[in-house]
Amino acid sequence: MFAPVVAMTVQGQGGPLDATTTVVLRVYREAFQSFNMGYASAMTVVLFIVILIVTIIQLRFTTRSIN
Fold it and tell me: Is the model more confident about 45 or about 10?
């Protein structure tokens, strides 16, 4: 949900009171607007780990229901 938020809000600011701000948009802002590359990289690694854990859990539940 990066492109729709950037396209629909003024300069990708995330709408009123950051209502449409997503994690990926926050990473983009930290990296390329605030130039906090280290913090943005850490956020990306944490996001990757969360997605990996959710994917592993989902795979375990779907393979159990097939067998």
Answer: 45
Structure tokens given for 5: 């938020």
Q: Please state whether the predicted TM-score (pTM) of the whole model is above 0.85.
A: no
With a CB cutoff of 8 Å and minimum separation 6, the contacts of 15 are 5, 8, 9, 21
Who's near 25: CB < 8 A, 6+ residues apart?
Answer: 1, 2, 5, 6, 12, 14
Q: Give the domain ranges of the chain.
A: 3-66
Give kind and range of the element (H or E) at residue 46: helix 37-66
Assigned token pair, 45: 């690694």
